[in-house]
Amino acid sequence: MKQICVVGVGYVGIVSGACFADLGNRVIALDIDEKRVANLNKGIMPIYEPGLDELVERNVKAGRLSFTTSYKEALDGTEFAFIAVGTPSGVEGDADLQYVAAAARSIAENMTEPLILINKSTVPVGTGDWVADIVKEAQPKPIDFSVVSCPEFLREGSAIGDFMNPHRTVLGSQDMEAAEKVAHLHLPLRAPIVITNLRTAEMIKYASNAFLATKISFINEVADICEVLGADVKEVSVGMGYDKRIGPMFLDAGLGWGGSCFPKDVRALAFMAEEKGLDPKILNETMIVNYRRRELVVEHLTEMLDGSIKEKTIGLLGLAFKPNTDDMRDAPSTDIAKALNAAGATVRGYDPVSMDVARGLLPAVKMFDDPYSMAEGCDALIVVTEWNEFKQLSLKKVKGLMKTPVIFDARNIYDPAEARELGFNYRGMGRGFNGNGS
Ligand code: UDX
After folding, report:
1. Which of 19, 150, 261, 378 is flagged as catalytic?
2. Does 51 belong to an annotated binding site?
3. Tens of pLDDT along 230-269?
4. Domain 3-196 -> CATH class
5. Which residues pair with 367 in a beta bridge?
6. What is the full DSSP assignment across 198-264?
7. Chain segment 47-76, per-residue pLDDT in tens
8. Distance 156 CA to ligand 1 centre (A)
9. What is the CATH number assigned to the segment(s) 231-428?
């Protein structure tokens, strides 16, 4: 049994900590937020993630997982310290590293025996070396340590499955012996392990996220072309996806990406390139194409409502940035709701799990407890998040409740022909009017 400390019980920290505990390690998870730790000790999770409550409870009961605010306690007898604190976007799109620096300093001040610091947070290329300098400087007396980069590739909503079944584990260090020890911790996951230097590992994370974001922006650009040429992007994606060189994933056109990772990582990679005098054209266009999706929805809906959404009542089906999470960070719903409000519409919202978070963020949006009561009296509905429960809605019932049966399906979850047959004025994204979408 290895002893591991995880610093930061946000998304990555709590999931990684609980999963490492489940693999049989003794994990002490630390956070400086006392309320968060007190809640965890009562079984209250800091985030919504399917399966997390049970995983945490099981491992706490088994004595493999505990929570603390004390670095002394967390580092006592620990050989591995994972840093999993937040790296929000700074003002210029750079990554804000204050929490990483604070964690490194506290670790340095409290470590009493040799330690491997493992960075899980997404940090600019070169941060591993910088962390090493911080630790060296902050140590009261020199104790051996190594820094290893081990970027996470977890998706919100399926984070536990992603941790337990990774496509690969990436490790970067200047100290190969330390990297091998961290590799050992990951062996039960039975995934290929790529060991490289620190900067390359940090870059693999940015390049992977930027590639996926670009893939989505690409299919969204194709969607717009499909629309004017009368093709259906949903079927185009299926046809493309069978090509093994392309693959079927991340080809869902619609509202584009949001959340806590893609927006900040694409921005940060572009920032790093620009700082060195490069002009990262693809990254910049990827962002432009993505944010344009949110404006397009409002423009298309205005057309559907005969040129004006003023005084119209619009219901948003889904508010979280994607299904199976309550995360509202950079969620398309926030920009869409604000644009609709600014154009004089009354905006309503419903989401299966993010309503509490959404209420604080979108005070001008009237929230409803279920999709049907929200639809009652609406002039139009927009599918913003593709929750499964929306795929099961009785569109017939919805139509009977609405003032005018207009649906803008911004995630392409409904069959256009079926929706139109029921009498809806239906529009998806990238579903050409002369093709299947007509
Ligand atoms: C992402 C990465 O997938 C993960 O590896 C990394 O560690 C963190 O960032 P996450 O943000 O949780 O994970 O969600 P993901 O499922 O990857 O979706 C990202 C965004 O892309 C969402 O806004 C989603 O709605 C959008 N998306 C995804 C599409 O618009 N189309 C797709 O085909 C896939």
Report:
1. 261
2. no
3. 999 999 999 999 999 999 999 999 999 999 899 999 999 9
4. alpha beta
5. 349
6. HHHHHHHHHHHHHHHHHHHHHHHHHHHHHHHHT-BHHHHHHHHHTSTTT-STT---SS---SSSHHH
7. 999 999 999 999 999 999 999 999 999 999
8. 8
9. 3.40.50.720
